[in-house]
Amino acid sequence: MEKRSEQELVRIAKLEKYRELGIDPFGQAYNVTCKSQDIKNKYKQYTHEELEAMNVEVSVAGRIMFIRKMGKASFFSIQDRDGYIQIYIRKDVVGEEAYNLFKLADIGDIVGIKGTVMVTQSGEITIKCETYTHLTKALRPLPEKFHGLTDVEERYRRRYLDLIMNEDAKRVAMLRPKIIRALQRYFDGEGFIEVETPVLQNIQGGATARPFITHHNALDANFYLRIATELHLKRLIVGGLERVYEIGRLFRNEGMDRTHNPEFTTVELYQAYGDLSSMMDICEGVIRYAATNVIGKELFKNPFNENSELIDISKPFRKVDMCEIIKEKTGVDFKNNHYTIEEATQIAKEHNITVEKHFTVGHIINAFFEEYCEATLIQPTFLCGHPIEISPLTKKDPKDPRFVQRFELFMGGKEFANAYTELNDPIDQKERFLEQLKEKDNGNQEASEMDVDFVEALEYGMPPCGGIGIGIDRLIIFLTESTSIRDVILFPQMKTR
356, 363 in Cβ contact below 8 A? Predict the structure, then answer.
């Protein structure tokens, strides 16, 4: 049986005292008419005398975060969703019974207050309590005020305490839905339709990633938690919806770090008759729209390196070619030298690049970029010219079929978006799937499976199309100037204690 601390035992003893007084320690519904910040904003310009004459009545509720108990008059503050507000309570106003009830209160208790707005001599907007209502007894004390939850792991495990004690945690939690709404407004304004596609899928596809596998009892079949929404959204393009997007959760059975969580949120968008250029316009436009309309600025700290230069999204995003930047950083020219796999493998070894069994020249090119170039892309940069082997759903570059029409957006040395001129040739698509199956046989667990139905859909004809996926969690890290994906997901996955 759990051993209670002395403070907890005192609080539990107060439960019986409340019950003796005929008070439910865990209360009932309460009518709240105002939030703390609204009151402060609305009445901060008035004097004490003006507020006295106005006799503004309000009803608020929240958690007690500070108490200064005195004889017949006391001060305390409560915290609601929007912030803090001070309460002034007098025995001769609320009555002896209510005042004695207040004196039982502890920091962490939740109470309701009806009263009038006033301003103290120090200029602090305060509510003069006329009716005090106990709502919920807190049986555990909050963490010490000035230190809060100092253990970062505990902050994420006990997010409820983090939200109480950490104003920045609440700020990010409140900004996240506003940012998502901004994305929706932008896409809706561009004529896109928001849709929903299945989370449970019987084919692993739409991206190169390891899936989570579950079992459907009624069908007696294994299903995957989706790693991407791509293939279903493209089916809708075939069906004639022309412009679609989905904001939804994806699940990838991979590692966890400051930029990766196995359950995360993305937006994927597809535009019939679009291409890579139109996706660049969409990508740049929606990020700048969210930044200016929600955050109110276009210059941000690098969330992944505190010593880095500020990141400026006000200017047009630059474009670079993968092979060109590799040549710039290493001297190796993959574009103009048609290396064999043996030659490329030798060059990789000379540059301390690990070559896995399933690697082709294209995989080696990508490994070079990740090792020598990725971290250098601080300012917003569209990286183009990806090898065909790592882009099984992308249209070939007509000038050089070793590469595809694709870009990734990098900021602060991290990827934020991935976009294609989509492959709409069903014959080519089937061949790409077959190549993915070979990779899977060679040990690449992230390779896609053959989606026969998707190939059939393409055979009915999909118009030329541009598509893009944007990592919403990582975008929120950037816009809120947080430092970890765990800061922007309310309940991130954690190791078992």
Answer: yes
Strand order in the sheet with 200-201: 200-201, 221-225, 212-216
Q: CB neighbours of 218 closer than 8 A, spacing ≥ 6?
A: none
Residue 107 exposure: Cα atoms within 13 Å on the Cβ side: 16
**CATH class of residue range 6-142:** mainly beta
| Contacting residues for 366 by C-beta, under 8 A, at least 6 apart | 322, 386, 387, 390
- How far CA 497 is from CA of 82, 244, 255, 259, 493, in Å, comes to 33, 42, 18, 22, 12
Q: Are 400 and 386 in contact (CB under 8 A)?
A: no
Q: Annotate 35-63 with DSSP letters as a single string.
A: -HHHHHHHHTTS-HHHHHHHT-EEEEEEE
C-beta atoms surrounding 246 within 10 Å: 21
Contact in structure between 137 and 18 (CB atoms under 8 Å)? yes
Domain 164-317+380-488 class? alpha beta
Q: Quick one: which of 234, 213, 243, 241 has its CA closest to 225?
A: 213
Where do the domains of the chain lie?
6-142, 164-317+380-488
Residue keyed to tokens 């290493």 = 330
For the record, the structure tokens of 91 come out as 């025995």
CA–CA distance, 352 with 5 (Å, rounded to integer): 56
How far CA 169 is from CA of 162, 164, 174, in Å, comes to 7, 9, 9
In angstroms, the first-to-last Cα distance of the chain is 19
Q: Residue 94: name the closest of 112, 110, 79 by CA.
A: 112
Calpha distance 157→171 (Å, rounded): 18
Indicate the range of 23-37, 88-102, 391-405 predicted with least confidence: 391-405
> Residue 411: which of 314, 278, 304, 322 has the closest Cα?
304
**pTM for the structure as a whole:** 0.91
To the nearest whole number, what is the mean pLDDT of the chain? 94
pLDDT at 441 (0 to 100)? 82
Q: Are 34 and 60 in contact (CB under 8 A)?
A: yes
Going by DSSP bridges, is the β-strand pair 125-136/83-90 parallel, antiparallel, or unpaired? parallel
Six token digits for residue 474: 């990582």
Provide the residue type at 157 as one letter: R
Q: What percent of the chain has pLDDT over 90?
A: 86
472-480 vs 276-290: helix crossing angle, rounded to 10: 40
